[in-house]
UniProtKB/TrEMBL annotation:
This is ABC transporter ATP-binding protein. One of its GO terms (molecular function) is ATP binding. It is a multi-pass membrane protein. The lineage of its organism: Bacteria, Bacillati, Actinomycetota, Actinomycetes, Kitasatosporales. Pfam families: ABC_membrane, ABC_tran. The chain crosses the membrane at residues 52-79, 120-142, 148-169, 236-258, 270-290. SMART domains: AAA.
Length: 551
């Protein structure tokens, strides 16, 4: 459980905060007694004896201020560290889970940013809540020691206060959960809109999209108002109940003074202790923070429910590249049996939606099939060690994401750094070297200042795959944005490369250059044969459309 882990990892600072809060509460509790004693001595004309007590009052006040300041610093540091720890923990899981996440990307961003900060307050607010109980309880005990009749008055009002607190916790929990949920929904819509900015601009109605993104805003506002209502109502109720209790204590203490059972200093102390015993504002504040922190933690816990990918420790035999799929069912794939011979260039073709990308994903373990097995050189992919798997299988995609900081870093991005010479050779093979060298800083150009065309980005993605040669290279529609001449050059470089190539092909020309073609239809393998042989079939030619003349 994330809640328990968070509290455990912050146990040190939490304990320190608890001790500091208790010390501060102790100083606050000692002050009324010292004040009462000073007053009694002054009223009795024993000024010299009153001196040390007055000094004690000053020391206690200064101590409480210093401890409070130190506690604030420790609290801020502990919360920041806790937030960093939570983010690392949840982000680690998100990256381990890969493509199967528990919520949308926008929700993930909202949870890892705002929710993580709120969840990070849990350890310090637990310490704070415990400490916030110390002052009222201590005040009550001190009140009983000063005059137990006055303590009885406070005790009589406590059940009502406990009821107020219970109602507050329930209301605050429900409204903050609703608030965070709606906030996540808006974040999701916003992220989607940022990604689709070009489509929105082309559609020409940004106002309508702004309205759509902000549509949950009234709901968010409603939840926010409900949160403030709950807090306001509880504060107002406490503001009526608690001063009434203090007044009642003062009245009883006054009667006790009149009967000679309590000194004037005792009355002053009883009044101050009644204020401390009923001073539960800090407690309500802490309970509020704790409730919101727990709600945020529950949302992060949800993220952790996405199953993370586990790896074995097996290694591959020394050579090969044979890929086998047996009875693979995954999304659109409905029982794929396929053997891709080691060293072969195999094109996967099929109509849109036939399951080509799904096949590419399970072939290199970007996803685990719902059933069936995928093995490389006879070793099931899940039993391979992570490093072994990623060394053996390379990928290039239709829309590569440029990670790695610079253009050169993007090509080098992978489990192992291939070195500068290999990066440049890979860029040449992917027909990327020429346009990279025209950039202001060449290979050192930051990706953020290198606006790339779709084809240029694809060539960087291909170069990245070439720079990390393994025994299986999977190209998922990775050349679709290249012009035919560039695609031909890249294909020739591919043919000269070693290992098995699984190429999702949309063009007949790509299929024609492959040793074998796997023809998918509605999630099943319809045929496995060389392109020229399949070209005799009208249904196969129809996959590429009449205009494609490579058949
Ligand atoms: N794991 C999955 N679970 C459920 N559905 C899936 C899964 N993976 C893909 N699909 C769905 O299966 C269909 C085919 O997906 P896929 O991307 O594999 O087709 P494709 O042949 O590559 O299509 P295209 O050529 O248009 O890219 C799509 O509707 C997709 O949403």
């Amino acid at each position: 459980m994330l809640l328990r882990e968070t509290v455990r990892q912050s146990a040190g600072p939490g304990t320190l905060i608890l001790l500091l809060s208790c010390a501060s509460a102790g100083a606050g509790l000692a002050l009324p007694a010292a004040l009462g004693r000073s007053l009694d001595l002054v009223l009795a004309g024993r000024q010299s004896e009153a001196g040390p007590w007055i000094t004690l009052c000053v020391v206690l006040t200064v101590l409480a201020v210093l401890i409070g300041a130190y506690e604030s610093a420790v609290t801020a540091t502990a919360t920041a560290r806790s937030a960093a720890w939570i983010r690392r923990r949840v982000l680690g899981h998100v990256l381990d889970a890969g493509t199967q996440q528990a919520c949308s990307e926008g929700e993930l961003v909202a949870r890892l940013t705002g929710n993580a900060v709120q969840a990070a307050t849990v350890p310090v607010s637990i310490a704070g809540t415990l400490a916030a109980v110390v002052t009222p309880v201590g005040g009550l005990v001190a009140l009983a020691l000063t005059d137990w009749w006055t303590a009885l008055v406070v005790l009589a009002g406590m059940p009502l206060f406990a009821l107020l607190l219970k109602v507050f916790v329930r209301g605050s929990g429900a409204s903050s959960a609703g608030y965070l949920h709606t906030q996540g929904e808006i974040a999701g819509r916003l992220l989607e809109a940022v990604r689709g900015a070009r489509t929105i601009a082309a559609a020409g109605h940004p106002e309508r999209d702004a309205e759509r993104i902000l549509a949950p805003l009234p709901e968010l506002s409603g939840q926010g108002h409900r949160m403030w209502e709950v807090l306001g109502r509880s504060t107002a109720q406490a503001a009526i109940l608690l001063p009434l209790l203090q007044l009642a204590v003062l009245a009883v203490a006054g009667l006790r003074v009149a009967h000679g059972d309590l000194s004037v200093g005792g009355l002053l102390a009883a009044w101050r202790y009644a204020a401390l015993a009923t001073g539960t504002g800090a407690l309500v504040g802490m309970v509020n923070t704790l409730t919101r922190g727990r709600t945020a933690t529950a949302r992060l816990q949800d993220v952790l429910t996405a199953p993370s990918v586990t790896y074995g420790s097996s290694e591959l035999p020394s050579a090969g590249g044979e890929l086998t799929l047996r009875g693979v069912v995954h999304g659109p794939l409905r029982g794929i049996d396929l053997t891709v011979p080691g060293g072969a260039v195999v094109a996967v073709v099929g109509r849109s939606g036939s399951g080509k990308s799904a096949l590419a994903a399970v072939a290199g373990r970007l996803a685990d099939p719902e059933s069936g097995t995928v093995a490389l050189d006879g070793v099931p992919l899940p039993s391979l060690a992570r490093a072994e798997l990623r060394r053996a299988v390379g990928y290039a995609f239709a829309r590569p994401v440029l990670l790695g900081g610079t253009v050169g870093g993007t090509i080098a991005y992978g489990a192992e750094d291939p070195g500068e010479a290999a990066v440049r050779a890979a860029a040449r093979a992917a027909c990327a070297d020429d346009f990279i060298r025209t950039m202001p800083e060449g290979y050192a150009t930051p990706c953020a200042s290198a606006p790339l065309s779709g084809g240029e980005a694809q060539r960087l993605g291909l170069a990245r795959a070439f720079a990390h040669p393994g025994r299986l290279l999977i190209l998922d529609d990775a050349t679709s944005s290249l012009d035919s001449a560039t695609e031909l050059k890249v294909s020739q470089a591919l043919l000269h490369g070693s290992g098995t190539h699984l190429i999702i092909a949309l063009r007949a020309s790509t299929a024609a250059r492959a040793d074998l073609v796997v023809w998918l239809e509605e999630g099943r393998v319809r045929a496995v044969a060389p392109h020229q042989r399949l070209c005799r079939l009208a249904a196969y030619r129809a996959v590429f459309g009449e205009a494609d003349a490579s058949c």
